[in-house]
Amino acid sequence: MIDVAVVGAGPNGLAAAAVAARAGLEVTVYEANDSIGGAARTQMLNGSQAKFDLGSAVHPMAMQSQAMHELGVHDKVDFIVPEISFAHVLDRRTAYAYKDLERTGEELGGADGEMYTRLLGPLVNQIDGVSQTLLNPLLKVPSNPLALATFALGTVAGMGLKNLFSGKFERAAALYAGCAAHVAGGSRGPANAGAGLFLAATAHGKGWAIPRGGSQAISNALAEEAMAYGAKIHTGVRINHIDELSAQNVLFDTSAEDAAKLSNGHLPAQLSHAMLNTRRSPGSCLVHYVLSEPVPWRDATLGKAGTVHLGGTALQVGKAERTAIRRGSAKPYMIVAQPSQFDNSRAPRGQHVIWAYCHVPLDSPVDMSREIKDMIEQAAPGFSDAILEAHVVTAKELEAQNSALVGGDLSGGTMDLLGSIKRPRISTDPWYLQSKGLYLVSSAAPPGPSVHGMGGFLGAQSMLKREYGITNWKSVN
Predict the structure, then answer these.
(1) Is residue 302 one of the residues assigned to a domain?
(2) How far apart are CA 8 and CA 253, in angstroms?
(3) Contacts for 307 with CB less than 8 Å, ≥ 6 apart
(4) 283-291 and 352-360: which strand pairing?
(5) Is residue 464 in a domain?
(6) pLDDT for 332-354, tens place per residue?
(7) Same domain? 395 vs 298
(8) Entry pTM
């Protein structure tokens, strides 16, 4: 019998395996797909010679993550940090979020620039403390109370900017609202505002990085770390129930629903019911493009941005996001990543890859490629003529590609205030599933979505402490 079985080889599962293996335990990882990485995979599709990120392509949280630092990812992966972290297109106007916050304020100018720098400045100055606080469970006693207080005040101010004063500070509000809309659903509440504030602050901290070679580089680095300490990784192996596993402990890098099904008969009934009925955010429809040239943006400066937001004013973005909950929007809020602008290994010579996505109703089969193409065309006349390939992945197909993305939900469950705390249960040790040896370590557990590996990093430490009394995994070997 092995010590630890990890079900799922996304970044969280691989981080969990690395921590457990470094603590001296015998670890085996089981992945249903034929390759590791989960939502951090990079592959060729449908015979294309280009390399596409199947999930996330740009990685702000990887740069801020304690897990990525302590597990050696920052040393093993070449992270490219664009000069412009992200840009937001408002009709024929553009607002730029440079990595340099001061420059961002200067280029916004006037009241917009002053508002934006006043809102983000305190967070950027304490970005490491803020990251340490937010990339941990919200119920944990904060190691940096000042950073938490600064973040709380900023969240209140951000809610006001996005919801009440966006007309007065149009470009500043649009930059901020675009970050908040990475969390699907268009909520006007504090969780959405706080997530947007944190994401915007990272743009001016360590930046929104693009890993050379694609997101797969992050997953490969985590796998390399785990295997260096003896962990075994098996791909193409689907686990149907934990009774198949001869393991003292099972760590789930899966959806909460799958963890409950795989543990059927082993979990408390109330917890199992809650996990099987996880509240979900809207899904996403994603399009992978191969172009014959870089995106022909009307505003050429957009070519220097790793990420481009399309969707208009803050009010328009919020309306489009709320519409996406029940029906697709004809003019959706969109996120466009253009990694080959910074990494020429991603496409054949002279060609470029971008991916673009918008939010749609959960589990939607709707193909939004026409709406996505039309919106990019408005900001980049001639875009349609540059398309060599377009590979569409609907919300339904996202789940088929990665079963952890239930209904195409990229968030692991709704990220409102309740969903941020009850994940999957309200506890100071939320990874433990109230049954000996069973732990949830995916984005369905704290600290939630994004490629940071912290769910696995913290969940594995919870397991080590509870099951083995190990409180310092780095000192075991």
Answers:
(1) yes
(2) 5
(3) 58, 85, 86, 87, 208, 335, 336, 337, 338
(4) antiparallel
(5) yes
(6) 999 999 999 999 999 999 999 99
(7) yes
(8) 0.95
